[in-house]
């Protein structure tokens, strides 16, 4: 078997085309949605992602506000920029690029973001809304995964999804999305405390690999025909992306998200969706 591709690039392009029309409609009402980013430090990967987000904004006609601080920035300096973005009327929504440098209290920074401007959907208020089934911005990577599966007609309803990882941006929140009535999946969450990862993965109709451990999902752990989403981003000695999914999985899985070209572009597209929706909510168009 050779897995069919869960094409994140093409799916993200379709989302951005829809957003271009929605941004144009907002502009006709005198509102230009703007995405803000705060990058602290000079990690080349983080800078690449942030630049990509600003390129996406330009592509759909959105404004963008780019703020940067050196790796030596103090907690107070970072929080001061967060407060500025909260108060900036040109900024509809924004993100603080993660990870923040060692020594910074990430949770304190994330909690300071105005929940109405939380483009990542990671503020405790918005995660709480998700738990309570209330409307709000959804975490971008988990929402991108759900959209990618739906776009390719992969059945989520009734599926057994096994998530590997419990990080802030994906693992922690994706079970909340997948177990909503609208998705209706059964979710098992695996992490470093899981005794027999292989046994858990063998049960999965859908695998979300977000551990950040290269090749942790091996072909022999995957049920033939399963859908496999590779979220992990590690780099080899040449700087090439190495995902959490072993290349041999392509011979067993029914569906596979490439990495790059799968979940990454979807994360960026859903970020724009959150900002456009915030702007639409503000003018009463959502
Ligand atoms: N505040 C946040 N920080 C981080 C998040 C996040 O969702 N919010 N997620 C990751 C990084 N990330 C988004 O910021 C991200 C990762 C990957 C991509 C992407 O488009 N990747 C490309 C390949 C890129 C490459 O070649 O290096 C792909 O998969 O095709 C976009 C966004 C951590 N931080």
From TrEMBL:
NADP(+) binds at residues 165-167, 233. Gene3D superfamilies: Leucine Dehydrogenase, chain A, domain 1, NAD(P)-binding Rossmann-like Domain. Residues 139-282 form the Tetrahydrofolate dehydrogenase/cyclohydrolase NAD(P)-binding domain. Residues 6-120 form the Tetrahydrofolate dehydrogenase/cyclohydrolase catalytic domain. One of its GO terms (cellular component) is cytosol. Keywords: Amino-acid biosynthesis, Histidine biosynthesis, Hydrolase, Methionine biosynthesis, Multifunctional enzyme, NADP, One-carbon metabolism, Oxidoreductase, Purine biosynthesis. It comes from the Bacteria. It catalyses: (6R)-5,10-methenyltetrahydrofolate + H2O = (6R)-10-formyltetrahydrofolate + H(+); (6R)-5,10-methylene-5,6,7,8-tetrahydrofolate + NADP(+) = (6R)-5,10-methenyltetrahydrofolate + NADPH. One of its GO terms (biological process) is tetrahydrofolate interconversion. InterPro entries: Aminoacid_DH-like_N_sf, NAD(P)-bd_dom_sf, THF_DH/CycHdrlase, THF_DH/CycHdrlase_cat_dom, THF_DH/CycHdrlase_NAD-bd_dom. Pathway: One-carbon metabolism; tetrahydrofolate interconversion. Its EC number is 1.5.1.5, 3.5.4.9. Pfam families: THF_DHG_CYH, THF_DHG_CYH_C. GO terms for molecular function: methenyltetrahydrofolate cyclohydrolase activity; methylenetetrahydrofolate dehydrogenase (NADP+) activity. The keyword Cell division does not apply. PANTHER family: C-1-TETRAHYDROFOLATE SYNTHASE, CYTOPLASMIC (PTHR48099:SF5), C-1-TETRAHYDROFOLATE SYNTHASE, CYTOPLASMIC-RELATED (PTHR48099). Catalyzes the oxidation of 5,10-methylenetetrahydrofolate to 5,10-methenyltetrahydrofolate and then the hydrolysis of 5,10-methenyltetrahydrofolate to 10-formyltetrahydrofolate. Homodimer. NCBIfam families: PRK14193.1. Belongs to the tetrahydrofolate dehydrogenase/cyclohydrolase family. This is Bifunctional protein FolD. It comes from Streptomyces montanisoli.
